[in-house]
Amino acid sequence: MxxxxxxxxxxxxxxxxxxxxxxxxxxxTSGYIPKFTGSTSIANSSTPIYENGTGIGIGTTSPGHxxxxxxxxxxxxxxxxxxxxxxxxxxxxxSSDYIGAYAGYYASGLNNALYGYSSGWKITGSNNTCLGQxxxxxxxxxxxxxxxxxxxxxYSGSGSNNTIFGKEAGYGxxxxxxxxxxxxxxxxxxxxxxxxxxxxxxFFGYQAGYTNTSGNYSTxxxxxxxxxxTTGGYNTGVGYGSAVSNTTASYNTAIGHNxxxxxxxxxxxxxxxxxxxxxxxxxxVAGANxxxxxxHSGVNNDGASxxxxxxxxxxxxxxTGSNNTxxxxxxxxxxxxxxxxxxATAIGNGALVNASNKVRLGNTSVTVIEGTPASYTSSSxxxxxxxxxxxxxxGLEFITKLRPINYQWDTKxxxxxxxxxxxxxxxx
Length: 428
Fold this sequence. Notes:
The chain is mostly beta strands. It has helices at 396-399, 411-419, and strands at 16-19, 24-27, 34-38, 41-44, 49-51, 56-58, 67-69, 80-83, 86-90, 97-99, 113-115, 129-131, 146-148, 163-165, 185-187, 202-204, 219-221, 236-238, 253-255, 270-272, 291-293, 308-310, 325-327, 332-333, 345-347, 352-353, 359-361. The longest helix has 9 residues, at 411-419. It starts with 15 loop residues before the first strand and ends in a 9-residue tail after the last helix.
């Protein structure tokens, strides 16, 4: 091919080309795009650039796309690779990886790994790992966070050292002043979603700790566990719905399905067992200092305080009465007004106490109460007595009128008397 008095601006040739007047000569291979090897000569490029009619290959002679590269690509300036003008691979330093549209778009810092649409796009802190669309999207200066899931840890602000996994887990609440919640672990759909400043929290399960804002040092494990807690701290809930209604109360321990379910503001309670200390209704909001251990123990406690119930359905009948003690299988109260008894004690299998300020040992089948040779005593000390008189004491005259008898005890009649006001469902 020859031409006179012209210098072609672009030369793509097949075979041998000589441009005599311009004095450019060279040779090449069919399909290859040449390069200048000198000021007046051309030849194949050392890294083959090949055009097959449908695409261009770099390092390959069989391109399958418009541009097919066999080898590494380096972006020497700028910090993003774009598709349709949208950054999909970004990077501000050799130690960070940003993959996904707008991932790490405004980010800086070291050792960050951000994957997903707009994940960690404002982070300036270091050592963060974010996976998912908008994960830690509004975290600004936090460091050491590991976040995974759609909008997980979204409003974490300057929070650091959080581990968050699940859709909108640890989402946070929008504040003009960025949130600062740190050193928390949230796992599950919307676990810890309402967090603002809480610290050292551990929420595992569907909506566990859902509305917790500034409460600290609490652990909720199980779906809905501690869901309504806001500012209460130092609480532990384990099991579905455990301590679900707790709002501002602190130092509660609820272990078991729906344990301490209705309690809201009462603190220092311990409940262990299926529905232990559940409460009778939504009125059971403020009971404090209770200890319930066993299936349905204290299940109807309606805001009362200072009760201890240990055993299967122990203290089942108490509602508003306080400072009672029940120890044993079905140890409980009985009689009119029994739900309000105070300072009553029932000890033993099926022991039923029927008045306040009374102690009942055992059920109606008990025939002997044994112990070491000792007698019950009450204090009798002249230093603490007043209005002491002798004229009203009967003395010997009273003793001579005593009538000693022998008798047999009708345990069945006595048991029916004790149980007369109890529902059939809980009678022995």
